Amino acid sequence: MKKDLHPDNYRLVVFEDLNNGFKFLTRSTTASDEVTKWEDGNEYPLVKVHITSASHPFFTGEERILDIEGRVDKFKARAAAGAAAKEKRASAAQKQAKRLNAKIEKAEAKAENSKPSK
What CA–CA distances, in Å, run from 99 to 49, 61, 68, 109? Predict the structure, then answer.
């Protein structure tokens, strides 16, 4: 096994779930500028996370949308804009096809009229 592969700077850190405020104390090597006071009266580094086992639907059994940063709204807006652009392109293609058909019919009519009669 390689030597010095694993970090050796583990320390006690508090992780806080931003969804429901759940906090837990564990050992970690992650860096943090914030500190918080724990139940034992000591201060520990604080790491804020978006989701933990206290708020994840797999562990809670609840079905809900966890949209902290507006990702669902952004996706819906992009999908609507894409559908509108697709509709606009289809409409433009139909207009162009009508113009092309009109030109073809006009050319056929002109060719029919310019034929010598027998």
Answer: 58, 58, 49, 15
Which residues, including other chains, have CB under 8 Å from residue 47's CB and lie 6 or more apart?
A: 13, 14, 15, 16, 28, 30, 32, 34
Q: Are residues 81 and 55 in the same domain?
A: no
Q: Residue 2 in contact with residue 34, Cβ under 8 Å?
A: no
Torsion (CA) 46, 51, 54, 58 in degrees, nearest 10: -160
Model pLDDT for residues 2-29, shown as the tens digit of each residue: 888 888 889 999 999 988 889 999 999 9
Where in the sequence is the domain holding 81, given as residue range(s)? 69-111
